[in-house]
């Protein structure tokens, strides 16, 4: 009982800002409005892009609200929440990240005079809740279902959704071209929730229209050793072996310390090492694979060995690419070359190494599981392609969502205007 009677004591660190009440609320609103003013000019098809550079000299040109908000170094605790709003919109929906920040800031600005007049924040919150409830009802009334439409019609609608998303971006001029590419890419990955199955590869140079979609996997040629050029670069229906081991002579001696009493034994140790690597290579060849990929290095000895046997190999393949090849071709990544049975080998209709701009690409197309797609983006400078990738990401997310939710409303500001008249 005595404890309950004691007044509560809260200890705060020295220098803590304890300001509260009306003045603090207004100051929070002002901070949010200031941040929203930064992204305001990027909204819509006539919106402009922002050029942001940081201390390290990295330059980003973007129209994407979430990207701009993330790059702004905001210190005000209330305004930081706007960054989180943009981030969550980006991960949940993909598009509309500028809109959510602006809407939040506008709501706050509308609320400011009421706060100044002494209206309790709880009352304001209740009104906003009511308004959002009504708005959601109205959206549902206006929404149009794409369920039950023919495949062609569905594709047309989805590609319209993608085009609306792209219209406010740098690549807006080519929105139809990219919209149909995005719809095909999303269609290729099927129902799974694995957006990482759509790879986007950037190759500077060329024009935007040189971009293309691969129904399968494509990745930049990895570092290769002597002998690589003698390997064949094109196969029809090859078996594909995926590895997570190093095929290099040096790999055997890394953790070994051997003490020799007789120098003549030295040769036998060297021979043993060669035998081990040859044994590994033999097993790869015997598996019947025509394409060998490894996440780790494939050295010069192995490269030459495979070249002599008309096998293509690539080492140091990025993990995400290797996993996508595995998913697309139906293969499994092996950590040993012992017992490589047919089931763990992948396959595809067509494999080739092709020149794209100044880069060479390994392209696997016509994959049996068909659950992957790769967009190879071309055009202009690095920053341009980076922004194009972000824009495509928005469009991919939107098409994905539209295929799942299957109801759409008119975009391009139409729905906003409709709400204005409620
Ligand atoms: N043709 C148009 N006429 C009028 N308004 C349009 C038109 N096309 C798009 N809009 C409006 O532009 C806004 C979209 O702009 P923008 O794509 O720059 O921002 P966002 O989608 O909110 O964010 P981000 O794309 O950066 O994630 C939407 O409010 C949309 O209604
Ligand atoms: Mg947008």
Describe this structure in words.
The chain has 422 residues and is of the alpha+beta class. The chain folds into three domains: 125 residues, GroEL-like equatorial domain (GROEL, domain 1); 117 residues, TCP-1-like chaperonin intermediate domain (GROEL, domain 2); 137 residues, GroEL (3-Layer(bba) Sandwich). The chain is 45% helix and 15% strand. The chain contains 13 helices and 15 strands. The strands form five sheets. Strands 6-13-12-7 form a four-stranded antiparallel sheet. Strands 10-9-8-11 form a four-stranded mixed sheet, with helices on both faces. Strands 4-14-5 form a three-stranded mixed sheet, covered by helices on one side. Strand 12 and strand 13 form a beta hairpin. Helix 4 packs antiparallel against helix 5 and helix 8 crosses helix 12. It is elongated. Magnesium ion binds next to loops. One of its GO terms (molecular function) is ATP hydrolysis activity. Pfam families: Cpn60_TCP1. Belongs to the TCP-1 chaperonin family. This is CCT-eta.
Question: TL;DR of this structure?
Answer:
The chain has 422 residues and is an alpha+beta fold.
User: What sequence of helices (H) and strands (E) makes up the elements?
Assistant: HHEEHHHHEHHEEEEEHEHEHEEEEHEH
Main beta-sheet strand count, sense and barrel state: 4 strands, antiparallel
Given the structure, what is the number of helices?
13
Oligomer: single chain
Count of separate structural domains = 3
Structural class by helix and strand composition = alpha+beta
What do we call the CATH topology of the largest domain? GroEL
| Distance linking N and C termini | 56 Å
Assigned CATH superfamily of the largest domain = GroEL
Broad shape: elongated
Estimate percent helicity: 40-55%
Classified by CATH, the class of the largest domain is: Alpha Beta
- What's the overall average pLDDT, rounded? 87
């Amino acid at each position: 009982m005595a404890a309950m009677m004691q007044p509560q004591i809260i200890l705060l660190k020295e220098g803590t800002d304890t300001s509260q009440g009306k003045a603090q609320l207004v100051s929070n609103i002002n901070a949010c409005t200031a941040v929203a003013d930064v992204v305001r000019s990027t909204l819509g098809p006539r919106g402009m892009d922002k050029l942001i550079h940081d201390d390290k000299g990295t330059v980003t040109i973007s129209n994407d609200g979430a990207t701009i908000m993330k790059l702004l170094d905001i210190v005000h605790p209330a305004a930081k929440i706007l960054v989180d709003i943009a981030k969550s919109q980006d991960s949940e929906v993909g598009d509309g990240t500028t809109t959510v920040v602006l809407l939040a800031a506008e709501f706050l600005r509308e609320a400011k005079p009421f706060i100044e007049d002494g209206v309790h924040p709880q009352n304001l919150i209740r009104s906003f809740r009511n308004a959002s409830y009504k708005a959601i009802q109205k959206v549902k009334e206006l929404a149009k279902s794409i369920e039950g439409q023919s495949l062609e019609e569905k594709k047309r609608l989805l590609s319209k959704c993608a085009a609306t998303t792209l219209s406010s971006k740098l690549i807006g001029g080519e929105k139809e071209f990219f919209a149909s590419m995005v719809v095909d890419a999303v269609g290729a990955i099927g129902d799974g929730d694995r957006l990482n199955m759509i790879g986007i590869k950037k190759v500077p140079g060329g024009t935007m229209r040189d971009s293309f979609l691969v129904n399968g996997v494509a990745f930049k040629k990895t570092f290769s050793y002597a002998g690589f050029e003698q390997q064949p670069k094109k196969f029809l229906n090859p078996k594909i072996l995926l590895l997570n081991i190093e095929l290099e002579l040096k790999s055997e001696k890394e953790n070994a310390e051997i003490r020799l009493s007789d120098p003549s034994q030295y040769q036998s140790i060297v021979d043993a090492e060669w035998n081990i690597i040859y044994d590994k290579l033999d097993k790869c060849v015997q598996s019947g694979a025509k394409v060998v990929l490894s996440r780790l290095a494939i050295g010069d000895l192995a490269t030459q060995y495979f070249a002599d046997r008309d096998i293509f190999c690539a080492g140091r393949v990025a993990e995400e690419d290797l996993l996508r090849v595995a998913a697309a071709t139906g293969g499994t990544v092996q950590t040993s070359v012992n017992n490589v049975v047919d089931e763990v080998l992948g396959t595809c209709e067509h494999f080739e190494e092709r020149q794209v701009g100044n880069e060479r690409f390994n392209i696997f197309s016509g994959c049996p599981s068909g659950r992957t797609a790769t967009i190879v983006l071309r055009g202009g400078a690095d920053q341009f392609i980076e922004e194009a990738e972000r824009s495509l990401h928005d469009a991919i997310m939107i098409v994905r969502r539209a295929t799942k939710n299957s109801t759409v409303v008119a975009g391009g500001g139409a729905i906003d205007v409709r709400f204005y008249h409620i």
